[in-house]
Specification:
heterodimer; A: 6-stranded mixed sheet; B: 11 strands; about 50% strand
């Protein structure tokens, strides 16, 4: 079973700063990784699929990279609405990472 | 636009069953898998399984095998998830989510249905 580990658990940054979130797989998932954003009281939203493709309507400040076992979600310049929890997910057994909480510093 | 609208909150006793519905609109219902994901209070996301609305074929996460049943009614573009033998740790928000590109990515999601299991 493939396990996804996200780091850090919590990331404290200020608006305008760059955010880098990590997701590591216990074995290779090729480029089959997605990222989701979840705000309090809301359903998750797909941001990135196939490691680096932005979903429809997702701003260009969100980008994904990586392949194999190491993946990164980058938010180039944080907007106030970006503070949320972010999950990675792989497609073979549809499991999610445990999440990274991005909070305002 | 593509929209998934779920049924309302439920309160159940331990040992009972719950059936959550997910009505799809804005696209061809039979053209996309439908997934079910749950989230316990303050916890992460847990995939439960998926249904092919065209064939009715299902794939369930091992954890839920024997307790979950996913069905659909194509005449009303609605998917269902029934969970039986409920326990207190089944208390969670249950989401339906449409598949993307037949690749087990989820977009969009329903608004979620809170199921509370309590004696």
């Amino acid at each position: 079973e493939i396990v996804l580990t996200q780091s850090p658990a919590t990331l404290s940054l200020s608006p305008g700063e760059r955010a880098t979130l990590s997701c590591r797989a216990s074995q290779s998932v090729s480029s089959y990784l997605a990222w989701y954003q979840q705000k309090p009281g809301q359903a998750p939203r797909l941001l990135i699929y196939d490691a680096s493709n932005r979903a429809t309507g997702i701003p260009a400040r969100f980008s994904g990279s990586g392949s194999g076992t190491d993946f990164t979600l980058t938010i180039s310049s944080l907007e106030p609405e970006d503070f949320a929890v972010y999950y990675c997910q792989q497609r073979s057994n549809c499991h999610f990472g445990q999440g990274t909480r991005l909070e305002i510093k | 636009q593509v929209q998934l609208v779920q049924s309302g909150a439920e309160v159940k006793k331990p040992g009972a069953s719950v059936k959550v519905s997910c009505k799809a609109s804005g696209y061809t219902f039979t053209g996309y898998y439908m997934h079910w994901v749950r989230q316990a209070p303050g916890q992460g996301l847990e995939w439960m399984g998926r249904i092919n609305p065209n064939s009715g074929g299902t794939n369930y996460a091992q954890k839920f095998q024997g307790r979950v049943t996913m069905t659909r009614d194509t005449s009303i573009s609605t998917a269902y998830m029934e969970l039986s033998r409920l326990r207190s740790d089944d208390t969670a928000v249950y989401y339906c989510a449409r598949d993307v590109l037949w690749r087990n990515w989820f977009d969009p999601w329903g608004q979620g249905t809170l199921v509370t299991v309590s004696s």
